Every structure is written in C-alpha cells, then in structure tokens.
Amino acid sequence: MFRTASVLAALAAVLVATMPVGGLAQNAPPSRLDDLLDRYAAGREPDLIATTFPDHVTFLDWRVELFTRAREWRESWQPVGATLLLEISFWGARQGWPEAYLISRAAEDLVTGRQAVLGAAPAQDQFEITFHRAALAWLVGARSLGQAEEYLRRVGNRLASASEPDAGDNRLRDPRVALTHGILAEAWTAPGALAPMSGSTRLPALAADARDGETRAHLGRALAALDSAAALPEVAEEATVRRAFVLHRLGRDEEALAALGLENAPADSTVRYWRHLFLGRVFEALARPAEAAAAYRAAADDWRGAQTPAVALAALFQRQGRAADARRWARVAGTAPLEVIDPWWHYWSGDLRFLPEWMADLRRSDP
Fold first, then answer.
1. Is there a domain that residue 315 lies in?
2. DSSP state of 170
3. Is the torsion defined by CA of 243, 245, 250, 253 positive or negative?
4. pLDDT grade, residue 193 (50/70/90)?
5. 217 alpha-carbon distance from chain centroid
C-alpha cells in the first residue's frame, strides 16, 4: 500500500522538478524507456509491467530514468506516460516498494500540470477525469483510505464534488468521482477498517451500534454524499442501493426498503445483486422472513455460485427450524465454485472492479 507521509510527496515534487532533462543515468539509456512506452501503448503484453520490474533491484535501476522522463512528459504532454507511471506505481505498491507513492505522484503531477486550462481541451479533461477515477479506485480498493481522502483534497481545485454548488469555475465534475465520496466515507466502517486506526482489536458490526459514534459519523458523511450522487443519472442506481444499505446499517429500515423499491432493476449486474442481497437483510430486520428468503433467492439467481445469499438462506432457515432447507443451502454455499467471485466483496472495494477497463481506456487514448 502507498505511504501517507507528506515528506514522500515533497520528495516526489523535488525529484520531478529538479532533475535535469538530459540527466539520465548511464545505465538507463533513453531508448530503453521509449521501447517500454511503445510496448505499453500497444497493449499486447498483459504482463509487461511485471516482467519489466520483476524485483525491487530492477526497479531501482530504472528509477532515475522514470523520474527524469516524467518531467519531460509533463512539458510535452505525454498522457500514455502518465498511465504507464500510474500502472508501475500500482505494481510497486503491491510489491511493497516505498517508491511506489513517489511514482504515483509523478504521474498525477504530469496530468494536473498539463498546459491546457480546464475546459479548454475536452479530450484532455476526460483523460484527467478517467485518471482520477483510476487512482481513486486503486486507493480505495487497496484500503489506503487516508491516501484517498488526501488525494481528493489535493485535486479539489480541479475536481469538484457533487455536493459543491457550481461556482461558475471550470473545475471538472464526474459522477463516479462524486459517488466515490460516499463509498470512501462508508469504507472506513468496513469490517476491520476502524480497528487499526483506533488501536482497538474489535471488528465493527455492519449494524451501527447507537453507542458507536465513530462509525455513525462516517455513515452520516456517507449518507450525505450518496444523497448528492443519487441525483446524478449516471450513478443514481448504485448510489441509491448503497444509500439504502447505509440506512439499514443505521437502523432506518423502512426508509431503506423504500429506497430499494426501484422502478426498474439496475442495469449493472453487480448493483442488481447488491439490491436483492440488501432487500433480504432489510426484510429480515423488519421480521418479514418469507420476503427475505425470496430476495436472497433472487440474489442467488442473479449471480450463480455466490456464497453470500446461500449462507444467508441457510442461516434464515436454521432460525426458522427448517433444518432440511438450511442443510440444502449450506451445501450450496460449501460447494460454490472457487473461480466465482462473490460481488458482495466488491462492495467494499469501491470502483476497483472498473480499474482494468479504465486503465485500458487511458492507455489507448491520445487526447
């Protein structure tokens, strides 16, 4: 994961700003990075980053050239260079390399330091929006929540949130980034998220205890952001379903049920699955077990092989004394295919499920 120390951010800026443009390391000739950039832009080698940087020693051999060329790319507007740097930072972060954060900041500075003013170059504006989407998706998905909040603060002069009134400026506005504000606020309350931050070893329950002021404060911020995002057509369905789950977690189940009563089924299959899963939870909380079971079955039908609705049905039937039904659904849960990823886990990863698509868009674009 990325480090959050401000000294690293300062160091990144110094490295990018002060390295001489022609000052490449003797063992890092320009053609090496030019070749990597061309191969990366072609997109025909899915493991290119991993094979180019198999270990930290190899990465350190490239480091000077990467930072030096980042400055060149910023001056000449080389968007695919920013995308390459961002993807290298993702790879480095997964390997635990401390320089990963510096590389990501160099990529960010390249994009936000472009010469075109906001609103003057629509294609570049869209590239920047997608870049911010991708960077935030990674941070939230990697549980670097403090970094994600810092990122949003850092680009606040370029990227407005949905809740901010239009002040007549040219700041970029994007529905998915608006939704990210709500996702991020709730992500602080995910199981295990608060414990490392507070020094506690407890795992917070999904239902927010009335005495748990910290969790309820995060959920209150999430609710406000999701209210704003739900007014944006592009993300309205997901924002509404997420908002309903937050209401449920706050004990406001009648409101949650009303929110989940969408006129049409969500187009996104993941969001559709969440809706049925959450309907089951809300119906259970409202002591309506038959409707809860129907909702869980719909979730199971939405995503064949997902364990969560099967586990929920097994537990529900066990509580009702329906042992045969409970055993049947327990067997379904226990024999779920290993290759099936339950979308319930995507809920806590924000937009990470879109990251491959967005990175491909960035790599192919030539704004």
1. no
2. -
3. positive
4. low
5. 21
Tokens matching residue 27: 């063992």
Which span out of 21-35, 271-285, 339-353 was modeled with the highest average pLDDT? 271-285
Please give the Cα distance from 180 to 327 (Å, whole number).
39
* pLDDT one-digit tens code per residue, 307-328: 999 999 999 999 999 999 899 9
Element (H, E) at 155: none
- Reported as half-sphere exposure (CB side, CA atoms, 13 A), residue 64 has a value of 13
* pLDDT of the residue at 167: 62
Helices 56-76 and 100-112 sit at what angle, rounded to 10 degrees? 10
- CA distances 201 to 1, 25, 138, Å, are 21, 47, 26
CB within 8 Å of 138: residues ≥ 6 apart: 90, 93, 144, 352, 355
Asked if residue 299 belongs to a domain, the reply is no
C-beta of residue 157 within 8 angstroms of C-beta of residue 171: yes
Q: What is the pLDDT of residue 151?
A: 96
Which residue range is the domain that position 106 belongs to?
1-115
pLDDT per residue as tens digits for the range 267-280: 999 999 999 999 99
Token pair for residue 212? 């748990």
pTM of the model: 0.86
CA contacts within 13 A on the Cβ side of 357:
5
- What is the C-alpha separation between 147 and 124, in angstroms, rounded? 25
Asked if residue 367 belongs to a domain, the reply is no
- Share the mean pLDDT of the chain: 86
First-to-last alpha carbon distance for the chain, in angstroms, is 30
Mean pLDDT computed over 318-347? 88
Residue 172 lies in a domain: no
Residue 210 to residues 197, 207, 217: CA-CA distances in angstroms? 20, 9, 11
Structurally, the chain folds into a number of domains equal to: 1
Q: What is the pLDDT of residue 148?
A: 96
Distance, in Å, from the CA atom of 157 to the CA atom of 275, rounded to the nearest integer, reads 35
- The answer, yes or no, to whether residue 202 has pLDDT greater than 60, is no
